[in-house]
Amino acid sequence: MNSSHLNPKPPITVILNSNCFTRSPYHTPIQQHPEIFRVHLQKLRPSRLREFDLELLARHSLDYSGAEIEQAIVEGMQQAFSSGTTGNRSDFNTEHIIRALEETVPLATIAKPQIEALKQWASNAGARPASIYNYQKSYAKSRTTEASTI
Hints:
Structural class: mainly alpha
CATH architecture: Orthogonal Bundle
CATH topology: Helicase, Ruva Protein, domain 3
């Protein structure tokens, strides 16, 4: 006797999150970037956090994911340390991170057609954004669309 009808498999849930991959193809909303920089810089330089211009860094990281921002900070740090001479090394600063951001092409730019196709698929499938920021933005847009059809 086949008992598969007694124990049906639960439906598959797909969660699309802007940070679900190590190298996420989704960029995070720019409004979240100062906080992302703060979190990563707090881990590396808690006593110098106020010295970094988080808003300026956010403006230079438009299409970057959180993972790409973290990597730019590490790259900026490595550039600063390698530019000094032995015994005369300077610590990294906002300008080093900006330079690292400018030398990097975010995945959201490289894979734009694939990302747009995935977003279209998610929209057609009825997927909801995982971050509260994206959910609020999506909800407001759907409410505006509904109101215009009434």
